[in-house]
Structures are given as structure tokens and as C-alpha cells.
Amino acid sequence: MYCKNCGQKIDDDDLFCGNCGTKIVRKSETASYVPKQTQNIQQNIEQPWNTQQNIEQPWNTQQNIEQPRNIQQNIEQPRNIQQNINRTKEAVDDINYDYTKLPTEKPSGIKSFYFMDFLIRLGNKENIPLCIYLVLNVLLIGAFVTAVCALPVGWGMAAALLLYIASISIAVSPIGEYILRRQNGCKKIEEAAVIERLEPLFREVYYKAKKQNPSISSDVRLFINEDECPNAFATGRRTVCVTRGLLTWSDAEIKAALGHEFGHLAHKDTDRILVVAIGNTVIAGICYMFQIAAIVMDVIIAISSLFMRNDSGFWVRMVSALSRFLTVIVIRAFNRIWTQIGVLLCMKTSRGNEYQADEFSCRLGYGDALCQLLSTLPSAKPKGLFANLASSHPASEDRVARIQASMQANTISAE
Questions:
Q1: Which of 229, 230, 228, 277 shows the shortest CA–CA distance to 258?
Q2: Nearest 5 degrees, angle CA 224-CA 227-CA 231?
Q3: What is the pTM of this model?
Q4: What pLDDT digit, counting tens, does each position of 366-397 carry?
Q5: Are 217 and 232 in contact (CB under 8 A)?
Q6: How far is CA 286 from CA 98, 143, 203, in A?
Q7: Model confidence pLDDT, tens digit, residues 345-359
């Protein structure tokens, strides 16, 4: 090794040159030594990179802020999946019209009792004619009880009121619904061809009606009677009946008619029918009792006249037979007139209910078909109690005009 200053040879462990005294600097010390000026230059070179890090730091902060959002999205993702699953199930139910899976809204409080719910709705202004009819029935029954049982008028009327309340309680119960089905010949559909045709139509209308009004019972059943006049009616809260003649209509018209009857079930108009039916039944029962009494009296007089030895026996039998004949005619005429009085008193309520049921069927999507069937209704009328109630319906022309106006209003509002 040689001194860089004078060139004199030196040993490896010498710190200074023995000839000139210069300090010996080795390569390791040279490599680790960096002048201060050079260090400053290096810092200036690296400073832009540090500046870039400072610029990027807000973005890192934003990522920290967004991190909880990502966590929330991960939490909500299963909810969205569940919502999609529910929508898929609803779509499948819509296709199959599975009305059994739809919820049913039940009244709460005092309205949860069938009879109390009916009495509360009976107080509506539109039911005033029906209340008048009920009062007249009570007065007539009271007069009968007072006369037959030889009671004071007050006690006779009180007994009649209790009797009529009991009859109404039965009327608005499943028992009254069953009785009315029997009276009108409603029976379970057993023919395979009829079931195959009506069941899908019934399921579709039932499903749409229950989605529109969840208060409709989840146990509504379809029946049929043998009347050849096309008609359908609902009674109670779980009965829809179609006539044999209804099968001559198209499927669209049958669905429109069923939608109308489900409208009555949704608005609980069918309770009124039950009460009118029970009122007619009680009065009809009283009339039959008078007829039976007349027949029994005629038989007693006829037997008594056999023991008469003169011609007076013949005349007694003649008068007795004539009296029985006139009694039967008067009683039947009275029963018919009384039924018409009830229909007239309930006509205003019935008209309003028919318009509402038409509108309900229209909202289900059957407005055009309903107009078609109303425009082609046959001149023949159904039989029995529902023939009398049908006579109180508004004119078909008025109903069609209202339906078309409602459909036009819905179209304008949708646009």
C-alpha cells in the first residue's frame, strides 16, 4: 500500500505516512463517507416522491371511510338475496293462484265477534231501510206471539225481539249459511267436467280478490244449483254458488260474475241477504202455522159434521172447506206481499251494493267481460229468494255505464 500524497510505501496497519505525515484513508471509510451536500441533493431528489405520498394520503383516508360502507353492503347482500327469493315465490304463487298462502286480515276487538260486527255495520246510514224491515218483522212476530200466547202487548213484543235476535244470531253464523244453502239447492260440485272447468276460474278470481281485500275468508267454497237461468250469488262469508245455466257463459264472463260475488263477500253485503232470508223464513213459518191450523180446524169440523143428523152438516162442511181455501189464499198472498215489502225496503241498499260489487270485479281486471255479460243477460229470472233480490238490482244499462266510466277514469289516472 502507498501514500497518495508522497508515494512512500506504508504498512497496512499504519494510520499516518512515516515520510510526509498524511492520514491514511482506506476504501471502506471512503465508501461510507458521503458529503453533506450530496445528502441534501439526494433528499431533494426523493422529495417529489414524498409529496406524492402526501397527495395519496387523502385517498387512503377515503378508503377508510368507505370501508364501513362495504361492510354494510356485505351485510345487506343476504337481505337482497332473500328479497329476490320472496319475489320469485310470489311470482310462482301468482302463476298458480295459490290463495291459501295469502294472509287473512281478521277484525280485532269487539268486531272479532261475528254478530257484533254485523250490528255495528247495521248502524250505517245506508242500512236504514234494512233496519225498518227488521222492525216490521219484530212487530209482526210480536203480534203473533201476543195473540197465540195470550200475553200483554209489551211482553209479547219483548219475546218477539228476543226471538228475532236469536234468529239473526243463527242467520249470520255458519249454521244460517248452511240453512240458506239448503233452501236454495246449493250442493257440492261432483261432476269431473264441471270441476275441471270451474276450479281454475274460481282459483284465479279468489286469488286476485283476496290480494285486493285480505279480509275475505280463507275458506270460501264454490257450490252449484240446478237452475237453468245463468246466475251466481254469494251468501254468508264462505259461500259462492253458481247455477247450472251459468256454464253456458264464456270463461271470461264466468270470472267476471265470480269477481262480482267476491265483491259482495269483501263488502260483507251477504250478511244482509242472510237477515232478509231469516226474516222471510220466520214470517213464512208463521204463515205455515196458520195454514196448518186452518186445515186442522177443517178436519175437526168435517168429522163433527158427520154426527149431525140433518142437512146442516152438509152446509157446515161446505163453509169449513171454503174457509180453509180462503185462508190458504190470504196467507200465501200475505207472504208474497210481505216478501215484496222487504225487497222494496232493501232496494236502495241493494242498488248501492251492486254498483260496489261491479267496481270490485272491474278492479280485478274483468270490467270488459262484466259489461259483455250484463249486456246479454237473458230475460228469464232465477227462482227463489234470490229472484226477489235480483229484481231490486239496478238496470243493466246503468251498471254498464258506471263500469265503463270507472274503467275510463282508471285509464286516465294510470297515464
A1: 230
A2: 70
A3: 0.64
A4: 999 999 999 887 655 555 555 555 655 778 88
A5: no
A6: 46, 11, 42
A7: 766 666 778 889 999
